[in-house]
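Q: What structure does this chain adopt?
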Amino acid sequence: MAKKSKKQQPGGTPATVALTAAGVEFTVHAYEHDPSHPSYGEEAAEAMGVSPERVFKTLVADVDGALTVAVVPVAGSLDLKALAAAVGGKRATMADPAAAERTTGYVRGGISPLGQRKKLRTILDSSASVHPTICVSAGRRGLEVELSPRDLAELTEATSAPVART
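A:
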């Protein structure tokens, strides 16, 4: 893992605290969240001026009764059948939002794959590997972290699989 290039402010989110503790290189991007925007991920990409293919959303699904995290580009959507297959399951559905919030410790639109209250099995869409860096939620709406997909996969113990539809 690369060394971090900037010091984390005290009182960061669990995601930024986890990144700092791991000593990985990351950049924090803050923007003013617009509650009327129809898509958290697209809003983040627009606000940061980053291609939607490089901004990834964190979705929580229920695969055969087990909550599972899927990290997919905001330019696409989650393929639930592919997610189930990636974890050896039969059926996947989107998790109840309240269960996702309670389990991860984050609010919808701010769920990060990093620093979750309960570590969930994580699948990172294989498209992440074509980018030197990607952006994911830093744990609250209006805050993203940019890091290498390799560091993200290592820190979340993610499996890479094609689980996004474009």
